[in-house]
Amino acid sequence: MNLKPILGQHHVSALTANAQKNYHFYTEILGLRLVKKTVNQDKPTMYHLFYADESGSPGTDLTFFEIKNAGRTYPGHSSISETALRVPNDRALFYWIDRFVQFGVKHDDITEYAGRKVVAFEDHEGQRLSLVSDENNRGVKGGEPWRKGPVSAEHAIIGLGPVALTVKSIKETAHILTKVLQYKESGKYTRVKGNSITTYYVFSTGEGGTGAEIHVEEQPDMQKERPGRGSVHHVAIRVENEEELGKWAEYLKQLRIGNSGIVERYYFKSIYFRDENRILFELATDGPGFLQDEHLDTLGEKLALPPYLEHKRAEIEANLTPLKTS
Length: 326
Hints:
Elements: E1 9-16, H1 19-29, E2 33-39, E3 47-52, E4 61-66, E5 79-87, H2 90-103, E6 111-113, E7 116-122, E8 128-133, E9 159-167, H3 170-180, E10 184-193, E11 196-204, E12 213-218, E13 232-239, H4 242-254, E14 263-264, E15 269-274, E16 280-285, H5 307-310, H6 313-318
Parallel strand pairs: 1-4, 5-8, 9-12, 13-16
Antiparallel strand pairs: 1-13, 2-3, 3-4, 5-9, 6-7, 7-8, 10-11, 11-12, 14-15, 15-16
Keywords: Dioxygenase, Oxidoreductase
Protein name: Ring-cleaving dioxygenase
Organism: Bacillus mesophilum
């Protein structure tokens, strides 16, 4: 089947126990824009918050489902274990070190992975994150910083970087990435983690670069991750349009890979499936995007519902704790 290459990261969706504190951290400290305040379409009693660049461009979205009673995360394999966020250059990392100190954000020193300067850090719920420099990026371009945000454009986060997976056996995930999703294994590097040195294998797609890589480590002796607040639910990767997504649906069917079929998400269309390591992947279309129901200047200010949930607005709003965004 003639499939176009995956374009790179689309979004990463994680869990939070408190939408208000989550909003504070990701907008007021990290300087991301809340581009869509909506609900989990499969369970509309919980918020689904989308943080991104100025206009919510594909490849810049970090999203959160609010589960108020979510317990702590116990890290392990079968997990999306770190999400990188791109900054313009090496110099910006020094700004972020100072900002993390100012706001009491737990962070490591500047180090280097796969030839790029990186700063690992955690949010207030233990979400495992890093900042990665785009200084030498020659691949997928970043987004446009939030104009009214608290971080200047020269330092601001401009999108998603590499997503790291921790798996019990790399063989199965490598098969899905290379033989099914048509990524290429493009290198490897080592990281010091605790008292050990871990090897990560790099898989890239499309134009490559920081916005189009998945990094995988094998940890057979770890326990399986017990997810909670601060864990990642799934990683979504970019498909150009609905026509192309239809081809992927047919391709997965031919390969007898169990999947959700095409799911309408209003802002994009998706297909979900898991690999044998229980990593949840989503194929998501670039469009139609977040501007079809809100103006660019007022993105994220009101509760947005897709048309097929609009008739339940009163019921949905009654079950949500008001989120203060101003």
